[in-house]
Amino acid sequence: MITVCLADNYPVVHYGVKSYFKDHPEISVVSNVGSFFMVPDALRNKEINVLVIDLELDGLKSIYELKAIIKNFPNTKVLVFTSLNEQIYAPNAIKAGVAGFVHKSSKLETLGTTIIRVHQGIIMLSDSIKKNLALIAKQNKSERLYRKLSNREIEVLRYLCDGKKNNEISKVLELNEKTISTYKLRLLQKLNVTNLVDLVNKAKTLDIV
Hints:
By secondary structure, the chain is an alpha/beta fold. The protein has helices at about 10-20, 40-45, 65-70, 85-95, 110-120, 125-140, 140-145, 150-160, 165-175, 175-190, 195-205, and strands at about 1-5, 25-35, 50-55, 75-80, 100-105. α4 (about 85-95) packs across α6, α8 crosses α10 (about 175-190) and α9 packs across α10.
């Protein structure tokens, strides 16, 4: 039996996922947490094979924190289950060491299949992501720049689009304010804009945030 911990903000998601897998022959949801701060204890208290986690989970400030979970709990596979744009976030999540990515618009049957396969050691990406990565590889540098944003650049961009100032972002991500300014400058250059308003609009147009 594959043991699963579900980390999600919303009780309705916990209820729906747990109900769906209640009588599943291979999967058992044995732990539910509602914030990232609860994840380490959940993984220590029970033997968890697969952690199913939303990138927008309360307390999860950066994808780099997921890298720490992956390092500290090597026997637990991490599977992202989120409504964030998979074209942008899946490649970066996989680079961080995540074993799979399932969009919340998918059927729970797909989530179940993915849980089983990542437990078997298979890196799971949707067909659309695989095709997208193949297309990115064929594009010239200028065409694919926005798709080559780093994990940290995407995080900074999300906070900028939420209206946060550089000093606020620096506190959330625990980085120097000058470092945030550097990321902001890189974003302006990579997305070929000259000001914050255009940066936010470009990010929304490209469905990056």
